[in-house]
Amino acid sequence: KAGVTQTPRYLIKTRGQQVTLSCSPISGHRSVSWYQQTPGQGLQFLFEYFSETQRNKGNFPGRFSGRQFSNSRSEMNVSTLELGDSALYLCASRKAPTGTGDTEAFFGQGTRLTVV
Amino acid sequence: GNSVTQMEGPVTLSEEAFLTINCTYTATGYPSLFWYVQYPGEGLQLLLKATKADDKGSNKGFEATYRKETTSFHLEKGSVQVSDSAVYFCALILLGSTDKLIFGTGTRLQVFP
Q1: Could you tell me if B46 and A106 are in contact, meaning their C-beta atoms sit under 8 angstroms apart?
Q2: CB-CB under 8 Å, B105 with A31
Q3: Which of A66, A36, A70, A72 is nearest to A54 (CA)?
Q4: Residues B87, A108: Cα–Cα separation, whole Å
Q5: Residue A51 in contact with residue B5, Cβ under 8 Å?
Q6: What is the pLDDT at residue B8?
Q7: Cα of B98 to nearest chain A Cα, Å
Q8: Per-residue pLDDT for A83 more than 80?
Q9: Where are the beta strands (DSSP E) in chain A?
Q10: Quick one: average pLDDT of A5-34?
């Protein structure tokens, strides 16, 4: 079956612009989480969604936002881009929230965002 | 708080050498533990997991045992290959109201022929 699909794979934006990244989870998976990966900070949790509802949010400024659609696809948006937003953004999908006992998360290949 | 500590890398080994990557954790509850691997230019792939104390996760020759008494989940492989060269991340999750994975800083493994 198809894995987690993130688009685009690479993106170059200018400071001050905004960007939208997309994540299509594995078919049948309804839980989506987003992570930011940078050399300095490592892997940091951004937010998670289930059934179109944000369940949890990491410690990021309000410029970072996200949403989930009824087909479980998710988008994240970063407004007023800063140089420090340059990172690999990873999306992970699960069948359901971990409260059900299913702990395995499947990651996409990520979107590499470069802010210049 | 909850955190994961991994040994600093890079770890440089010759092919067929024994591998150990140390991982310890701090958690307010009873976590599930994971090892993920990231190959160059790729996302994360789940390597193995353990959900309760004394569980041993294993996959592709890699093993890790959930040690509650020492709060550790060290990754081992008896004989590494050049194709194992990658970055390895230890992570935990606390079941309940969040799906948030807490990752260690990652350990780069370089295997030479």
Answers
A1: yes
A2: no
A3: A66
A4: 16
A5: no
A6: 84
A7: 6
A8: yes
A9: 5-7, 10-13, 19-24, 31-38, 42-50, 53-57, 64-68, 74-78, 87-94, 106-107, 111-115
A10: 96
Sign of CA dihedral A80, A81, A83, A89: positive
Amino acid residing at B15 = E
Whether residue A101 is predicted with pLDDT greater than 70 in this model: the reply is no
pLDDT at A63 over 80: yes
Chain A interface mutation, best of B4, B23, B100, B108, highest count of A Cβ atoms under 10 Å: B100
Q: For residue B99, what pLDDT band results from cuts at 50, 70 and 90?
A: confident
Rounded to whole angstroms, the Cα distance separating A33 from A38 reads: 17
For residue A50, which of A14, A113, A115, A102 has the smallest C-alpha distance? Answer: A102
Give yes or no for A96 touching B (CB within 8 A): no
H-helix or E-strand spanning residue B21: strand B19-21
